[in-house]
């Protein structure tokens, strides 16, 4: 197969409608997933419309957990779409290698966020299932395959009337009926995937699609295994039959998961160290006990009401007093009626029959009560005989003895031992060993020989597999430790079978530590020292070798943002970028005071200040090579890892949580008093014929605490410059390519007009280029 502009590497997946290939987009050298529609379907307008619709819909959705589309086209008889290549596989592949409950919640949260974005834009996916949830290399979940998605107004049926859209195992009740659906149908399907990730199977199974659909309509919501009971409430609201009883939006699902993972919710998670059979028995026993106690309370209440209504007189004997309630009387009372004797007799007869009927009901309820008590006693006896129950030692001896006798009556213990197979090592038949009886004084050797008897070999029971203690010694001492890939709750010295274990250590205010360890043939002690979580907005200095201070740094939190802008071809296409970890960036541009320490320490020439002043003014007339040499010296002098910011980090920090053209808003006219630029800022440092830099801190900081990220001095970044963002990494790392002759400059300067100091504006320059309006700021790693 040949499609211009792409080099096809291999086939990834194939379905009835299309085939997906791994390909290289030659124009930018990027790996893409190339989805090619089957040529046999070109004549079917329904499938052609779906294929085109997928590209149109995804092109309007911009979310980090929704697949991105790069190109759509047609070559000869081949329709194709180029989209993100998601190398992490699907949920089914993740389940094969094992998912922890934390991963299940994270995936559910991310897909719920993607659905919330799609629904907000007016689109329903209608085919949420594990095959359509894929993963990037950073393990983030991505929703794909919008081939059957539609707008809310038209999302009831497929093009062919009477044919319902969706996959039977994951369809909502309203989808199975063919009724109009909205985003809550996707929420239901997400609930099915949630259940499958926890248990390894779908909630409703049958041989025929119709039978599966009926179960979605009528069968009760399944119960999760005991170790996942903390998640039952979320599952119930995801799989509610009535859409009005479900989560109404994806953000509601996220809020429920966040509440569950909070301090109050985590303590409710159930874990057990028992084997699976015992877990099932305990679960059944709990369910039986709860049901029985509920029925018992109801029977006692009814029996008590019945006893309270009994009356006795010498003339009538024992009878039941009818309870008559007068609720409301309207209109005039009628005069006394004749034949009162006949009416009274009829009332007495009716009361007599009613009393007999209630008596029978009392007997029936009494028998039911006796049966329920018997079942409770039997279950209690079996449980007491099988396991060690809490508080068992406080039970009176007669109660324990009676319970054990009852258990033996229900499940008698065999008196005859079962014959055991005899194992031999070298001889295939059972050896006969003659051993003489001990001789007495009057016993002859012949008698002794006659007293010889065969000895039956005893089989040695198989030893239990060895276990080895695991002891985690965290810092802080009371940090929480969990083993994520087994249900057993961790405690110091927990005995474990040999194997690999996923250990998570967490404490409020510290970064969570997650690692794999190997338990082989000896006890394992694992020291874990947690790092304090960086506090966003906090400022600090690192001390230089000579005791002086380095640049003032401010901590920027991890997060996501949309990089670039549709307003500038050099900043296109917009990219959804994730900054995975907090980092610290210099609060101001590096000043002459900062840079001159380095220049004197390394005998480098001092850069020219253009006679505007040094000290607290941003350093200018420095090349990218000069900036790189400074950060290397700073790293060596402080013992910390300093570097130039990546382009993504710079824009993320400059935007400070906004998506507007400037960090203060959309209007450049509002720049007065906020930035130093040539035209539009009304700056005191610029005039009609000249302009110069302002001392750092002369203008307000953005929400992250950074000053002059717009105007004043433009700033070098790490990245190789390209006049587009097609190749820009989406994990916050810099773009580094071969033959990198230019590096990227961001922020604009005092010589630019206000339109050129917008947050997305970028340009490139050679690494040895110096200019009077060009400086830099630095980043230091926190980990």
From TrEMBL:
This protein's record includes keyword Lyase: no
Protein name: non-specific serine/threonine protein kinase
Matching Pfam families: FGE-sulfatase, Pkinase
Alphabetized PANTHER family for the sequence: MITOGEN-ACTIVATED PROTEIN KINASE KINASE KINASE 20-RELATED, SERINE_THREONINE-PROTEIN KINASE NEKL-3
Source taxon at top rank: Bacteria
Entries under CDD domains matching the protein: STKc_PknB_like
EC number: 2.7.11.1
MF-aspect GO terms: ATP binding; protein serine/threonine kinase activity
Record InterPro entries: CTDL_fold (IPR016187), Kinase-like_dom_sf (IPR011009), Prot_kinase_dom (IPR000719), Ser/Thr_kinase_AS (IPR008271), SUMF_dom (IPR005532), SUMF_sf (IPR042095)
Keyword tags: ATP-binding, Kinase, Nucleotide-binding, Serine/threonine-protein kinase, Transferase
Domain Protein kinase residues, every copy: 6-271
């Amino acid at each position: 197969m040949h499609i211009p502009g792409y080099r096809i590497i291999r086939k990834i997946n194939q379905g009835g409608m299309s085939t997906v290939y791994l390909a290289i987009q030659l124009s930018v050298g990027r790996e893409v997933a190339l989805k090619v529609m089957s040529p046999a379907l070109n004549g079917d307008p329904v499938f052609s419309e779906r294929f085109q619709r997928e590209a149109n819909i995804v092109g309007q959705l911009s979310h980090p957990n929704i697949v991105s589309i790069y190109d759509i086209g047609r070559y000869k008889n081949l329709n194709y779409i180029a989209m993100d290549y998601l190398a992490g596989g699907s949920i089914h592949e993740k389940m094969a290698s094992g998912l922890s409950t934390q991963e299940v919640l994270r995936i559910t949260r991310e897909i719920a966020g993607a659905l919330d974005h799609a629904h907000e834009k007016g689109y329903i996916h209608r085919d949420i299932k594990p095959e359509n949830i894929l993963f990037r290399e950073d393990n983030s979940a991505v929703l794909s395959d919008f081939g059957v998605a539609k707008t809310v107004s038209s999302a009831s049926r497929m093009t062919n009337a009477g044919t319902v859209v969706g996959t039977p195992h994951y369809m909502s009740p309203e989808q199975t009926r063919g009724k109009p659906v909205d985003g809550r149908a996707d929420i239901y399907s997400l609930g099915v995937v949630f259940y499958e990730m926890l248990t390894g199977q779908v909630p409703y199974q049958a041989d025929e699609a119709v039978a599966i659909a009926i179960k979605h309509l009528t069968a009760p919501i399944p119960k999760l295994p005991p170790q996942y009971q903390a998640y039952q409430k979320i599952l119930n609201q995801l799989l509610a039959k009535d859409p009005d009883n479900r989560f109404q939006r994806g953000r509601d699902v996220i809020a429920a998961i966040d509440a569950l993972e909070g301090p109050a919710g985590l303590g409710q998670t159930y874990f057990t160290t028992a084997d699976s059979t015992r877990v099932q028995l305990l679960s059944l026993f709990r369910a039986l006990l709860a049901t029985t106690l509920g029925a018992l309370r109801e029977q006692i209440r009814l029996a008590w009401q019945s006893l309270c209504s009994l009356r006795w007189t010498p003339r009538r004997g024992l009878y039941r007093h009818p309870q008559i309630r007068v609720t409301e009387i309207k209109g005039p009372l009628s005069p006394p009626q004749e034949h009162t004797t006949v009416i009274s007799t009829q009332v007495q007869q009716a009361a007599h029959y009613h009393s007999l009927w209630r008596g029978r009901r009392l007997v029936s309820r009494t028998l039911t009560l006796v049966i329920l008590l018997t079942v409770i006693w039997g279950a209690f006896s079996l449980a007491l005989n099988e396991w060690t129950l809490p508080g068992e030692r406080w039970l009176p001896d007669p109660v324990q003895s009676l319970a054990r006798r009852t258990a033996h009556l229900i499940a008698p213990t065999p008196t005859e031992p079962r014959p055991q197979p005899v194992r031999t090592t070298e001889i295939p038949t059972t050896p006969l060993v003659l051993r003489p009886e001990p001789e007495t004084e009057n016993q002859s050797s012949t008698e002794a020989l006659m007293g010889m008897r065969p000895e039956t070999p005893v089989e040695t029971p198989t030893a239990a597999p060895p276990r080895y203690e695991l002891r985690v010694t965290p810092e802080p001492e009371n940090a929480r430790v969990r083993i994520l890939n087994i249900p057993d709750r961790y405690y110091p010295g927990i005995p474990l079978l040999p194997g690999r274990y996923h250990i998570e250590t967490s404490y409020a205010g510290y970064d969570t530590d997650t690692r794999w360890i190997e338990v082989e043939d000896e006890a394992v002690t694992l020291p874990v020292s947690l790092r304090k979580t960086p506090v966003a907005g906090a400022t600090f200095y690192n001390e230089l070798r000579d005791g002086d201070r380095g640049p003032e740094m401010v901590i920027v939190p991890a997060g996501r943002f949309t990089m670039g802008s549709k307003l500038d071809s050099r900043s296109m296409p917009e990219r959804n970028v994730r900054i995975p970890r907090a980092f610290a960036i210099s609060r101001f541009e590096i000043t002459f005071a900062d840079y001159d320490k380095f220049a004197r320490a390394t005998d480098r020439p001092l850069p020219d200040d253009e006679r505007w002043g040094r000290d607290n003014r941003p350093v200018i007339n420095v090349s990218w090579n000069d900036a790189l040499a400074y950060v290397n010296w700073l790293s060596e002098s402080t013992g910390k890892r300093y570097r130039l910011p990546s382009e993504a980090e710079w824009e993320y920090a400059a935007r400070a949580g906004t998506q507007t053209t400037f960090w203060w808003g959309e209007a450049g006219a509002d720049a007065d008093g906020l930035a130093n630029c040539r035209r539009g800022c009304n700056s005191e440092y610029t005039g009609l014929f000249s302009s110069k830099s302002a001392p750092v801190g002369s203008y307000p900081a953005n929400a992250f605490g950074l000053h002059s990220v717009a105007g004043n001095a433009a700033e070098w970044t790490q990245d190789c410059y390209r006049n587009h963002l097609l190749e820009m990494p989406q994990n916050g790392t810099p773009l580094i390519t071969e033959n990198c002759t230019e590096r990227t400059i961001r922020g604009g300067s005092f010589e630019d007009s206000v339109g050129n100091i917008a947050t997305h504006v970028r340009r490139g320059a050679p690494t040895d280029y110096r200019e009077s309006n060009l400086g830099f700021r630095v980043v230091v790693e926190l980990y």
